[in-house]
Structure formats: C-alpha cells, structure tokens
Task: structure prediction
Amino acid sequence: MKLTAYIDGTSLIGPAFTDWTTAQAVLLEQQAYVSNKTVLPAPVVLPPAERRRTGAIVKLSLAVGIAACEDAKQDPKTLPCVYTSSSGDGDNCHAICEALASSDRAISPTRFHNSVHNAAPGYWGIATGAMTNVSVLCAFDGSFGAGLLESLAQVVADQTAVLLIAADSPYPEPLQSARPLADALGIGMVLNPERTTHSRAKIDISLTRAPASHMTNAALEHLRLHIPAARGLPLLQAIALVQQSNASQALVLDYLDNCQIAVTVTPCQGS
Result:
C-alpha cells in the first residue's frame, strides 16, 4: 500500500544546523559540514513559569515544531501532531536516577511530570494553545520511520494536515555509554493531503525490504547512525535536491530490522 502527501513545511536543528535555510546548503553539498554542538533555542513561546522547567528535549521539540509551521504558513494550534522520540528527556531521567540512588530518594513534582514520554507534546499544547490530537510514539532506532508512517496514515485517513516532530537528545553519563547519542537533533515537517501554494514537494511512501539509503558525507552519515531522529536526513536531503533540480528522488529510510520505508519525493510541478 502506498501513502501520499504534500510536504508544506520543513525544519531541522542539530549539530551545525540552526535552521532549514542553512541546513539546505550543507545537504546540497554547497557548504562544508562543520560539526558544532547543537544550540537549543530558548522556548520563548512558553510562559515564564513553564519555560524554567523545560529541558533539552522540550526546547528542541518546540523549536522544530514552530519552525516547520512557520515554514508552511500554518497556525500550529490547528494541526494534529505526531511526536516521536527514541528516548525522551535524558537529562531528567538521569536526575531521577540520581535521586533514587541517594539517601533522600525524594523526587520533585517537576521532575516527575517531566519524566513521561509525552511531556514535550504537553508543553506544545501549552505553548501553542493547540487542542488537536497528539500521537506520541517511541520505536527505538526506528522512531523517525514510525513517526513518518503514522503522520502519512493520518493525512490519508483523516484528510487533514499533520505536523510531524521527531526529536532526540543525549543522556548524561553513565547512561550515555549504555545508549550513546551523538547530540541533540530535531526534525519538523508539515504534511498535507492536498497541494497548497506552500507545498515543497510530493511524498509517496511504502514498505520495502531494500536496504536503507546512506548519506554520502561521512559526518552526516555518522549523525544518521548515531541519532535516531537523524534517520530522516536522507529525506531532507531529497527534499532539498528536488527543489534544486526539479527532478524526482527515490530513497529508503531505516525503520525495523527486516522492514524499511521506500520513499519517492517528486516536484509539485509534476503532481
């Protein structure tokens, strides 16, 4: 079965990626990739009280979600959202483990409510005022693929635009050694059932057993392999190439051990 949608907005924040505009130059190999630690924007969309309680994964998720909506010229409060992350808030998990291992063992209410996997979507609702459906997914290294499948399934089934947010941030040690993540990275994407004036390209996906596509740049391939959300980098590169060349791009994204996602990205002019 094939699922089809239109890509109306994209965003990327990660090591050396501050926004989609600067990321495109690197993905198109017009500019060298220079690795820098991910800079997380302050969550200015949140009220001050909530802003003080947020960790890296919330800041990252809010930033890529808002940026994708702005790119698509969509009001974020109107969009259903699919949120996917392989780990959630690693810093908060570390702090709770430290507290439980101490003689006190008391956990603050703020730590507790930030510990759940859907904390970031909760802050999304507070920040944007959105009362639309939010689907929260976790599929280990296949989390980006799971989120993309769920997003397109909702677009096709409900005939509505959907916001996809995929985000991961690393753990502190010693958890980082057990589950090493290279850095924080987030991707945002607005998908629409119909072509609009803001549509960048059309996307078709289906399941396949073909091997996943790799990034030709060794540094970007390292990110793809070591941050689950970065499994979406080949798709973002394909979107950039389609916009540059006006030619279709075919690729395969990582999903499960024996099941991948075949993707075709085509120019809107050919739709």
The longest helix spans residues 56-72.
